[in-house]
């Protein structure tokens, strides 16, 4: 309705769920029936009405936790390649960048993971080992950031391919103060640059709250870092083979500090 209100000649709204029934009624109640066509189904399976071969603009809120969770961007790329006009086609949003940083988070780690060391006198550490391999989606306090933030993935939605979403990146995180590191945190930014006044938003701990929050990869061992020391590593991500909506994340971490050392590879699964 906002697109129609802004002057779109016609809008084709696609959704696979039954909410489209209510959406159609809302469109009718607001007087947009002649400008909006509701289509129920998967983008990969539906067809636009006869005579409609291309569209000028694609609008989609595909972003998930860790930016790529649920693999919804695949659907946007499919729609882009099938329907978007080749010359001057527009996608909103059209740019996305994911970042990595490190945090001190002793209280949450103790409550969420170390709890399993002694549960009413029982050693339940096998559960702790599983829990540590599941990324945590939560709000991170900006004061918890220990290092700088570095980009690990940049996407141009107009040109990227499905293969680009299976990424691998190296990183160097420089400690800003003497502290402990209990985990690495990812967040992302999205931008709308194909307009006369580009805008965007961030899911950084330093920005306003969003429902995406941040994604935390807790480490098995706590690192003790001094200001100026550098944590290096490599992070890779790809859809899980059994469930392509889940993400398999592999973190290779190396650190040689004054008070602690680390060289470990950890496999996480975001589900």
Features:
mainly beta; Hnrnp arginine n-methyltransferase1; 2 domains; six-stranded antiparallel beta sheet; four-stranded antiparallel beta sheet; 15% helix; elongated
What does this structure look like?
With 271 residues, the chain is mainly beta. It folds into 2 domains: 2-89, Vaccinia Virus protein VP39 (Rossmann fold, 3-Layer(aba) Sandwich); 95-270, Distorted Sandwich (Hnrnp arginine n-methyltransferase1). It is 15% helix and 38% strand. The protein contains 5 helices and 14 strands. It has helices at residues 2-5, 19-29, 73-83, 106-112, 125-131, and strands spanning 11-15, 36-40, 57-59, 90-92, 95-103, 136-138, 150-156, 167-174, 179-192, 199-202, 214-225, 230-239, 247-256, 261-270. It is elongated and about 65 Å long. The protein starts with a helix and ends with a strand. The model has no long low-confidence stretch (mean pLDDT 97).
In round numbers, the mean pLDDT is 97
Q: Which architecture of the largest domain does the CATH hierarchy give at level 2? A: Distorted Sandwich
Roughly what fraction of the amino acids lie in strands?
Answer: 35-45%
Could you give me the name of the CATH homologous superfamily of the largest domain?
Answer: Hnrnp arginine n-methyltransferase1
Series of H and E elements = HEHEEHEEHHEEEEEEEEE
Number of strands: 14
Percent helix, as a range, is 10-25%
Count of helical stretches: 5
- Taking Cα atoms only, what radius of gyration do you get, to the nearest Å? 22 Å
CATH class of the largest domain: Mainly Beta
Shape: elongated
Helix and strand composition category: mainly beta
Number of domains: 2
Name the poorly predicted regions.
none
Please describe the biggest sheet, giving its number of strands, its sense, and whether it closes into a barrel: 6 strands, antiparallel
**Alpha-carbon distance between the two ends:** 33 Å
